[in-house]
Amino acid sequence: MKLNVILIGFMGSGKSTIGKKLADELGMEFVDMDELIQSTLNMSIKQIFQEQGEHAFREHERLLSKELRKKSNLVIATGGGVILEPQNMEFLSENGMIIYLKSDFKTIIDRIEHSASRPLYEMDNTENFRNLFRFREPLYQKYADYVIQVSNNHISSIVKKIKQKIKKNAK
Ligand code: S3P
Predict the structure, then answer these.
(1) In this predicted model, what pLDDT tens digit does every residue of 77-93 receive, in sequence order?
(2) 66 CA distance to ligand 1 centroid (A)?
(3) pTM for this one?
(4) Ligand 1 pocket check for 34: Cβ under 6 Å
(5) 19 lines ligand 1 (CB under 6 A)
(6) CA of 46, closest atom in ligand 1
(7) Over the chain, what HEC string results?
(8) Bridge partners (DSSP) listed for residue 77
(9) What is the CB neighbour count within 10 angstroms for residue 78?
């Protein structure tokens, strides 16, 4: 069995919430890449985007992906843009099973509408944001070992489904 579980998906798909519960139930360590980048730099994501730019943020993401491949027994919640850099996915999948938390656009918007911590959403209008969603969807799909539908599903049933996939993968 591969040693880490990597959750990918668009902003607001529930990677952190689901990841925490999954890690808890499996007795694994939970790592949130955004949180780790923020605490390492002692800056919020918003600040990083404003002061260093998106390009610099992507580089922080890349270095962290490289670092995480050396570790094991982790459930990793990635940032929604992790799939933009193919190298990230190479690093992460080296030692991990990739699970795509697939959500429809409406569910995403409902979840993140009042979020103050997502610069890409704040900077854009809904139409551009929808285009971003459409552009990224095939990338999440491409890198996924498994796809789990999260819209209209309760967190406990999502976690249960992921655990079944992990079990299947271990055989
Ligand atoms: C981003 C998603 C965010 C965060 C950053 C960029 C993206 O993470 O990494 O704001 O490009 O989709 P979440 O997916 O946890 O919101």
Answers:
(1) 999 999 999 999 999 99
(2) 18
(3) 0.95
(4) yes
(5) no
(6) 10
(7) CCCEEEEECCCCCCHHHHHHHHHHHHCCEEEEHHHHHHHHHCCCHHHHHHHCCHHHHHHHHHHHHHHHCCCCCEEEECCCCHHHCHHHHHHHHHCEEEEEEECCHHHHHHHHCCCCCCHHHHCCCHHHHHHHHHHHHHHHHHHCCEEEECCCCCHHHHHHHHHHHHHHHHC
(8) 7, 32
(9) 26
